[in-house]
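Inputs:
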Amino acid sequence: MTINQSQRPAVAGVATGNDPGGWARVWDLPTRLFHWVLVVSVAVALITGFVAPEWWMGVHSVAGYIIVALVVFRVVWALFGGAYSRIASFAYGPGRVLEHLRGAMLLRPRHYLGHNPAGAVMILILFATLTGLTVTGLMCLGGEEKQGVLAGWVSYATGNGAKVVHEALAFGLLGMIAAHVIGVAVESLLSRTNLVGAMISGRKRLNAAACDAPSDPRPARPFVAALSLVTVAVALAPVLTLAARTPPTGVYDLAMDPVYAAECGDCHYAYHPSLLPARSWDGMMAALDDHFGEDASLGTKKTAAIRAWLVSNASENWDTEAANRFRVPAPDAPWEITATAYWKRKHGDIAATDFKRKAVGGKGNCIACHGDADSGRFDDQAISIPDNK
Amino acid sequence: MIRFTALPVLAVLSVLVVPAVAGANPGRDAILAELSAQAKDQASGFAGFDAGRGDVLFRHRHTGGKPATPACTSCHGPSPIQAGETRAGKVIDPLAVSRTPERYSDPEKVAKWFRRNCNSVLGRECTAREKGDFITFMTSQ
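Outputs:
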């Protein structure tokens, strides 16, 4: 090894105490727990976000909330944690980062006990990405799904826009995870140190090549950290409570009109009025004598009453995901919710035989699988496909 | 002696049996009486409703109506004592009065469903005789 170590002591690790036998305690327990809980939470979030069907939405959200808590914790621990956990130990200038990257490319990087400069840059970008992911995730959850603390503050259109950013950031996160894993593998080989093991045991074998004694060797201050976290929680609690209690925008409780429920519900599921635009309801109610291939005519009084109720509660009056998606009906079948491209795409994975099951009763029977269809919300978590044949 | 004991037995029997036979529904009787009067007006040779003709009407595959519903059985199923299913997947209570006793007793409902379903299946209004035959058949089931 021909690394210039003149600026730093040759052997570090003194800060947090060394175990006998040439081992340095580097990662304190909270940092290690943080790391692995984050690994699991991010894995769950990525799998439920990219692969799992919609009804895993609840798990995805919980993973997101855990990530928020982890990020908040780690920011506090970056101020009051152990020497190698504190931001001061890995706030490298651009010169050090470039030097490290140059060394890494020549496969002879300077070795560090704590975070190396490339890793430190990765961590900062990772935290920005996780913050962006949770913020856009909450915006999407609030705007599109009308759930979570932002449900009363974010419109569907904004939530939909946030989803695009959320997805882009998620791909970015995948790339960062790949870079992190490759970086750890390369550095493990080059420094002949088991870095994964170090993140489990917290200890690294003292290596003459490692060159970073923390400039500030003070031990962790867990009580100050705990107090800070409690302060943050106490300060945020009323804000979050208020936000969570704000009614979602564009959703209201609508009691089913009894005439509509009785007359239309006789033959088919009584669809929530938010599932079609006013002009579709209007056209449909004007042509009940040929209603999906059957005569469904009613007296003029009942027809007018049902038409008025449907039109005044049509999709234009709602900001739910379903209302937004079905506001533009299929051009050749403006009364048929299941004819829209969106409906077909969303139900593309469901076999025709599943729709034919007795417990389902056909494509038009929303309530068979969407437990909350009567409210017009169609939450992802409320989906449950009956499994009897 | 026999006469005196037979009377109360008959009375008890009639109370038990008559509703089961399903003739004793004033609403349905009134509807049938009205249909009978109309049938007499529509055809001079009308001589009462016939369950057999109602059975044929129920099962026949008609051609004048909407393509999705060529017969009553398209939705109501082949047996009047069993439940049917609308094309949209809703269960329809059996047509037979023995299974759904409140059937054919509300004139508004009877008018609505004959108007709609005769148009869907036959492509025209049903005659009073057809309606009466149908109800008579379903009452016998």
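Remarks. Residues 12-22 of chain B have pLDDT under 50 and may be disordered. The interface with chain A takes residues 66-69, 85-90, 112, 115-117, 119-120 of chain B (CB under 8 Å).
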